[in-house]
Amino acid sequence: MVVDESFVDFSEQSVDNTLLTNEILEENPNLVVVKSISKSYGVPGLRLGILASSNLLLIDRVRKNVPIWNINSFAEFYMQIFNKYEQDYKQACRLFIRERDRFYVDLQQIGYLRVIPSQANYFLCEVISKYSSKELTELLLNEYNILIKDCGTKKAFRNGEYIRIAVRSTLDNQRLIDALKRIIIVKKMAMKIIDFETIRNLSISPADCVKWVETALRMKYDSCLPHKISMTKEPDVFFNRMPSYLPSCGRFGVKVVSRFPKREPALVSDILLYDATNGDFLALMDGSWITAMRTGAVAALSIQYLRTSSAQGICIYGTRQHCSGNTVVLDGCVRGAVEHSSFVL
Fold first, then answer.
1. DSSP letter (8 states) at residue 248
2. What is the rounded distance in angstroms from the CA atom of residue 2 to the CA atom of residue 10?
3. By CB count within 10 A, which of 130, 229, 306, 329 is most buried?
């Protein structure tokens, strides 16, 4: 039996858990204990480790395959002075275990992580929501200059979303906890704000508007469209809310229309868009251009499907600020089919 004790000093009871005693090894001749000094002692550059067994034949075979100069001068010096600091090392292990326990409690407060209990100098955590392990690793590095290990690519985890977090000093550990908490806020606020000019500058054609509106109308009976909710503050001043849920797109949205006669323009609309699968706030969009072009697209579809063969003219009446959208869409989609005139009241 081969036992690797590279992390045993980090465990509860620390160095008292070791099998590296003459008594245990002599009682178990088939036991081989290996230990990397670089882990708990923090000296990876020395490339130092040990193998112990009471099986002398095995030890002899191993020695025959070890290079002549298998320990460098730095490692040799380290082994000479180690006993001088042994009590300091044991005290450091006790302090480490205490800090790991504290860090474990703090990590459990991060809702998108499942923290796996550890007896080593790190925690393995499953990322259970909001991010992939790759996304979280990149966010911490790019935004907070904190490097953790993305274990999501390791075959043993079968494409699971896992990360490895080292247990460091209280200051470093708290810095990581603060970053993990701030990332939640950043994620919630990472929605896009899309204003009127941004939407208009997309140069969406009238034909595309008509096509999209027709698609939306065909999806109507597969969607959830509650009645409009209206609140009136005073005559001619109101707030209307129009929620909708599109299961096929995985999107939930609310359009809010407000009217204040003394405001320019008096009628303003905003659209809030959410991811219906996890509730993330995706975008806050100015709804004025969208509403105007949508109104025009509906008018064009009405003409396309409902006009009589003898129709010769179109009159746009009383659409106020949406008149421009009607005119643009009709110009682009029904020009030549019928003549049209606009009368804005």
1. T
2. 19
3. 329
Tokens of 339: 């003549």
For the beta carbon of residue 66, count every other beta carbon within 10 angstroms: 10
H helices of the chain, where? 22-27, 37-41, 56-64, 73-81, 86-107, 133-144, 170-188, 196-200, 206-218, 288-306, 323-333
| pLDDT tens digits along 300-314 | 888 888 878 777 777
In angstroms, rounded to a whole number, what is the distance separating the alpha carbons of residues 180 and 280?
Answer: 17
- The strand pairing partners of 13, in sequence order, are none
Task: Output DSSP code: residue 120.
Answer: S
Both tokens assigned to 190: 């990472």
pLDDT at 165 exceeding the cut of 80: yes
Give residue-wise pLDDT tens across range 102-117.
999 999 999 999 999 9
Amino acid at 200: R
| pLDDT higher than threshold 50 for residue 275 | yes
Q: Which residue has the tokens 């000479």?
A: 80
Among candidates 214, 273, 276, which has minimal Cα distance to 242? Answer: 273
Instruction: Report residue 109 CA to chain centroid gap.
Output: 17
Rg (CA), the chain: 35
Q: What angle is formed at CA 118 by the lines to CA 116 and CA 121, rounded to 5 degrees?
A: 125
Residue with tokens 């606020």: 189
- Which tokens in the block code for residue 27? 């009682």
CA distances 75 to 37, 38, 44, 93, Å, are 10, 11, 10, 21
The Cα–Cα gap between 186 and 63 comes to 57
User: Residue holding tokens 């080593």?
Assistant: 120
**Given a cut of 90, is residue 99 above it in pLDDT?**
yes
Q: Give the residue from 40, 7, 10, 6 showing the smallest Cα distance to 101.
A: 10
State whether the Cα torsion 118-148-2-87 is positive or negative.
negative
Kind of pairing between the strands at 237-246 and 229-234: antiparallel
